[in-house]
Request: fold
Amino acid sequence: MSRRRRGRGRRRRQTTASGGRGRSPGGERGLRFTRKTALYGAAGVIFAAAGFLLLAQGSINLAPVLLLIGFLGFLPLALVR
Reply:
């Protein structure tokens, strides 16, 4: 005779169609594109472009700082927020 487990087994987590699990706190699925994220992304692109322009002109002081602010500061904020 075998005993049945009632509700004690592992449950599978439900996944969304895009492969992610669950929903974001706002109720939407996936990345949210808002005005705030667009501004962060634009700022990241502007800082990175200014850094590359200064780097092409030979600046070794300000160019790396602008590149770091653009690539490691604003662009990740655009994806996360």
Q: What stands out?
A: The chain is about 50% helix and 0% strand. The CA atoms of residues 37 and 74 lie 9 Å apart. The mean pLDDT is 80.
